[in-house]
Design a protein that fits this description.
The protein is an alpha/beta fold. It has two domains: 216 residues, Rossmann fold, CATH 3.40.50.1170; 116 residues, Rossmann fold, CATH 3.40.50.40. Helices cover 25% and strands 23% of the residues. It contains nine helices and 21 strands. The strands form six sheets. It has a nine-stranded mixed beta sheet, with helices on both faces. A hairpin with a 2-residue loop joins strand 11 and strand 12. Helix 3 runs parallel beside helix 8. The longest helix has 13 residues.
Length: 357
């Protein structure tokens, strides 16, 4: 790690900048017109604008930076361990990450971090940081500013969040919705935590409070989770194959609207058999806005009767990460269902969206 002081006066906050890979970590070599890795250990010279921030930055890079498509459980666990090992030495953490799977990583970290009371901000870019029109510089600068923003020695955002294109989102409430625009992320079921303009305006009442309890991590994850997306005309053999994946423990069923599915006898019978033999079944809607309300319509009432667990208004990324986290705790099927429907890290709205209002 190399320390870079970004203020001519005594720095107010120590920030650890962790580079995992992704578009933000590339610059353009104008002689060859190729993209080459950005040197984050020399960040002050590369991005002189951040000298105006009252921060001291250490940089830490994965030895083999990853395209975020290659992110997996071992990388989430590594990130959690890095934060834990350095927790007492830093006031905040900024993780540079490819945008494609950023919401999955943010969700996973939010569950692995217990009693978090410091900012962990993920950011990235749609264009490499070395290109003229990049969004990377603004995203990086503002993410650092948010990570070191304390008032009366209390951090403004003591949770896992994603900063992208002027908005700060709760990490486990987001998804990537656009590959072309700089506004790549959305959080339709939860307000943004902050908006960056001339000043940064925080939505205080929507931000988690720091925990007074000791910080710890729970990194046991179990990826025996699969996702079945329903669509009109889906064949019986596809559904039954998903329900009978060898050694699988949980299946997320992506349903229509507020949690509805077809009521064909073969479908309900297959779902019932899978549930009876112990497979954990989760009802998560295709829709990104709103959530599952099992029992609101007859077509979801059968799923509720069989025992599917409502995902409420959680995003798919959080559903998958939370399932891996809870499976890693070694819970029974009944315990899994109870904890899954609780709001553990602000990932779902309470009360649960499963009533028949």
């Amino acid at each position: 790690m190399q320390k870079t002081y970004l203020s001519s006066v005594s720095p107010k906050r120590n920030i650890l900048l962790i580079y995992t890979g992704g578009t933000i970590g590339m610059v353009q070599d104008y002689d060859t017109n190729r993209l080459i890795p950005f040197d984050f250990s020399n960040i002050e010279k590369q991005i002189p604008e951040i000298k105006n921030l009252s921060a001291a930055i250490d940089t830490l890079s994965f030895e083999d930076p990853l395209d975020s498509s290659n992110m997996g459980l071992e990388h989430w666990q590594r990130l959690a361990q890095i934060v834990f090992d350095n927790y007492d030495q830093y006031d905040g953490f900024v993780i540079l990450h490819g945008s494609d799977t950023m919401a999955y990583t943010a969700s996973a970290l939010s569950f692995m971090f217990v009693n978090l009371s410091k900012p962990v901000i993920l950011t990235g870019s749609q264009l490499p940081i070395g290109m003229v029109r990049t969004d990377g510089k603004e995203n990086l600068i503002t993410a650092i500013e948010i990570a070191c923003d304390y008032r009366d020695n209390v951090p403004m955002v003591p949770e896992v969040a994603i900063y992208f294109e002027y908005h700060l989102y709760r990490g486990n409430r987001t998804f990537k919705y656009n590959t072309e625009h700089f506004e790549a992320f959305e959080s339709p079921n939860y307000p943004f935590l902050a908006e960056a303009g001339v000043t940064i305006k925080y939505n205080d009442r929507f931000i988690n409070k720091p925990s007074p309890l000791p910080f710890r991590i729970e990194t046991d994850l179990d990826n025996r989770v699969a996702v079945l997306t329903l669509f009109p005309g889906v064949s019986q053999h596809i559904v039954e194959a998903a329900l009978n994946i060898k050694d699988n423990l949980a299946l997320v069923v992506r349903t229509y609207g507020s949690g509805n599915a077809m009521t064909y006898p073969w479908f309900l019978e297959a779902i019932q058999k899978a549930s009876d033999r112990g497979l954990i079944l989760i009802n998560a809607t295709h829709c990104r806005g709103g959530g599952v309300r099992q029992g609101k319509y007859e077509t979801s009432g059968e799923l509720e009767r069989i025992g599917l667990i409502s995902a409420g208004d959680m995003q798919l990324e959080a559903v998958v990460a939370k399932s891996m986290y809870l499976l890693g705790q070694g819970l029974s099927k009944e315990e899994f269902g109870l904890y899954f429907q609780e709001d553990l890290r602000g990932e779902r709205t309470a009360p649960q969206l499963n009533s028949t209002d």
